[in-house]
Amino acid sequence: MKRKQYALIVLFFTLLPAIGYAAVLTDPLGGAGVNGLVKNLIRAMLGITGSVALLMFVWGGFQWLFSAGEADRVKKGKDTIKWAVLGLVVIITAYMLVNTVISILESGTVA
Questions:
Q1: pTM for this structure?
Q2: Cα–Cα distances in Å, from 72 out to 3, 52, 69, 83?
């Protein structure tokens, strides 16, 4: 019985530093703060939507390429490309506006 108690005491003091390290909380934002988190989140969303728009541009090209001259399929491919280009323009404009607003909020002045 005493051996089990000694073993438990030794085990407790052996694992005590590991328990102390487990209680240390790290900053999940990496010191960036809420502003940095929002900035990174918006940029990530714009990057994903830009990738989707580029994918649609390629998809429209394939539609047009494999239309075999059928007018409806050619029109469908052209429309897909047209809307993908419009989407890219909207995404680039949104990116510029977001960067401008973020820089104004960070610096506190309008440059």
A1: 0.61
A2: 86, 24, 9, 16
- Residue 11 resides in a domain: no
* Domain annotation covers residue 56: yes
Domain assignment of residue 10, yes or no: no
CA 29, 34, 39, 41 torsion: positive or negative?
positive
Task: Please report where in the chains the tokens 């005493």 appear, as a residue.
Answer: 2
Residue 18 belongs to some domain of the structure: no
pLDDT tens digit sequence for 75-91 = 999 999 999 999 889 88
Q: Structure tokens of 31?
A: 């010191």
Q: Name the one residue in this structure whose structure tokens are 């939507």.
A: 49
Domains: count for the chain:
1
